[in-house]
Amino acid sequence: MTDATSNGSGLPSAPIYRRGALIEHPVLESFAPPPAETTTILGMGALLWRRRWIICAAILAAMVVAVLVGKMLTPKYAADGAVVVATRKMSIPELETLVTPTGDQALVRSEMAVVSSRQVLTSVAAKLHLDQVPEFNSRLKPKDDSLWTEINPIPWIQRVIRGPQPVVGDERAAIDDEVLNTLVKNLDLVNDGRDYVINITYKSETPEIAANVVNTIIQTYLSQYASENLAATIEANQSLDQRGEELHRQLLLAEQRVQDFTNKTGLLVTPQGTIAGQAVADLNSQLTTARADRAAAEAKYNQALAAKQSGIAANTDVLASPVIQQLRTQEAEAARNQADLASRVGPNHPDLKAANHQVAGVRQAIGGEINKVVSSLKGQVDVTRAREQSLVQQIAELNGKATSSSAAQDTLKRLNDDAQSRRKVYDEFMVRVAQTAKPQDHQQTNARMISAAIVPLHPSSPKITLMALLAGFAGGLIAVAGAILYAQLDHGFETLEQVRTVTGLPGLAAIPLVRNLGRKRLPHRYVVDNPTSPVAETLRAFRAKLRWASEGRPLKTILVSSAVPAEGKTSFALSFARLAARDGCRVLLIECDFRRPTLETVLPSPVRPGQPSFLDDPASWRDWVGVDGLTGLNYLTASGDSNSMVPMLEADGMGSILRDARREYDYIVIDSPPIMRVPDGMLLARSVDAVALIVSWKRTRQTVVREALRRLALDPDMPTGIILTKVDGAPAQDMYSGYSR
What we know:
CATH topology of the largest domain: Rossmann fold
Mean pLDDT: 77
Low-confidence stretches: 1-36, 87-102
Oligomer: single chain
Number of domains: 4
Number of strands: 14
């Protein structure tokens, strides 16, 4: 067998088998809470699989309730329409904000608020006369006597939350408020954030009303949108006109200041500046030209004078003279003639002298003409110098005057600049004004309908299938959560593996619940009539464990006890003993529950009332042994005064009986009282070979089992195990299912 050792976490580990002892485990001085069954995926899966029918039932119940509720709800029809906003923009940035939306998502959200505003919805209600429709005016609805009205908790919850609502206003105001609230409740506006389309959906009990409401909302919104644009245009034009008049007044005032200052100071200002300034500029320009002319004249004069002195008439002005050119021609001809005569005649020849005289005369004439040109150039130099000097004097005089009136000129310049800037602002503003729309012009609406609502053919709600699926999903989640929560609570043991994990003690057997009623279907009779049933096979498996564990020392005396009453310990003890006797074993069943004996109601008692118990004279215990006629089981029933039993047990009277019985029987089964009620079980445990603690499946709390084990105060070497009884639906590995023809 196994030893139960600590696993390091404070909990007893699984028992180990050794040397003929059933189990060995430490004294349970500390008993930690059971580890959560849902700490692993497999553990959670196993837990949910065991609760699968409860979970399925919860899902099915939730779906059925959802379907029933959906059938009771009034069908509603949904109509859809759509409008688009801010599709066009004005080309005048300065005025755009006055009459045109900005075109961003904030605008779309703002327009959605306008569509669902009280002003629009009130107009829609008035156009469609919704106050005369029972759906919108509950005063027109007939009294609803349906079952759903009686069981519907929503109105009651609303009354509890809101409390008494005082009536404010007259009946007409209450009706209008109800109509408006109904419109708001069933109206849905959607924009996906990627465009400027507003989808408008309305749900109503009547399909025609749903479509009419959507179309009327769109028409009312567009009508108000156009009216607001027209009003905005009128207001903008009025504002522009006022601004234009103000700019014009400012321009006239600036020009008047210039005129007044000019009249006062006598300064004349043109677009190019003051008269004095213009005169100085002109004189400076003339002075520059005069200086250039003077320099050119001096250059020509100097060249002509140099040519005269050198005798070389290379000056352009000299060469350009027609007289000099003619004289040069004559000089050339006379020089050729002179040269020809000099080559043919002597120097005193009269012809040669005449030729020389002719050449000298021509050259003298040329010199006279050159003197005339030089004198002319000198006169030009004098004229240019005089003009330059005159201009310098005039400029000096004007500069003197300008210096004396510089402050006035600065003031006049500032006034002129101010007048010009105001003129520019006014002209540009008037150009913009000329481009804006006038109130009488046709307004281009920036919102338009792109989809009108049509009468829906099928209701949009309630969506019974979706409701059922969601309800089933929610019911399943709640059931799963409940199962997991239930697994965390101390509600007893469910499997033998849980017994081993939690207590460190082996789960010796899981006895199935016998469902059929009647005396012959009681467990102790059932195993006799059905020796191959799962209950019988499970009891045989328990007996095999005892035999296998008895290699070192025989385990003949078994104490069967429980923590609290009604856990099936007596039924188990009798069933085990009867089945073992039927299978050919020599078995003695001893009833030690002296306070509440029950075996005599099943087996005939060999002791007559009033006779002493078999513990009164342990040496003669055989005289009180009865025999079961069905199986040959030997038994001792409890009788006598229960008040004297505890001293007898403490005196070890039972120990002497068991020592004698061990020599005659294969198994001695002792049925003891509940450990939590009386100390008899603790006294009897000193005289037995093994202890089987009976625990009712999913009924006896684990803390109670802990306390029972603590009160037993068993020796660590005492073979001890736990048997689950009344098991219903335990895993297949916890019990035997039978194997017969």
